[in-house]
Amino acid sequence: MVAEVFTLNNLFVGLLFFLTASFHCAENSRQRRKIMHWGAFCCGLGLCNQHTLVLYVLVIVPWVLSRLHAVKELSFLGLVSLGFCFIAGFLPYIYLPISSYLSTARWSWGDQTTLSGLLTHLLRAEYGTFSLAKAETSVSLNRMLQ
């Protein structure tokens, strides 16, 4: 059984909206702190799955930070702990070079044993939206020039 990328992305979008609404309705700082840490973790985990989630994260994160600032709960240590939760969401990426090195991956998106191979995969350089747009643009330009 495999989780489909776009369906899983919809799950993360829904989860982020739920956490955002929960954060907005939180009654005290303890609830807000718990929700924002789960939100940071889910943002990182969701971005592992689908990079388009960044469109939601770029709106939600500044809003959460402004709300924290408004209620005087924004601190340096709070930002550091949120950063750790966000980075913890990216932990599934540790599996990629290990499985590539051990050749245990059921499906492979290239060689991730090197840093350049891992970055190629992380940035979706071989199969991502930007490479499709590049190919479409070059085809259109070739047609126009003929």
From TrEMBL:
Q: Keywords on this record?
A: Membrane, Transmembrane, Transmembrane helix
Q: Which InterPro entries match?
A: GT117_domain-containing, TMEM260-like
* Record's keyword annotation contains Membrane: yes
- TM region(s), chain numbering: 6-26, 38-64, 76-96
Q: Which Pfam families match?
A: TMEM260-like
Q: What is this protein called?
A: Transmembrane protein 260
Q: Which organism is it from?
A: Ilyodon furcidens (goldbreast splitfin)
Q: What is the lineage of its organism?
A: Eukaryota, Metazoa, Chordata, Craniata, Vertebrata
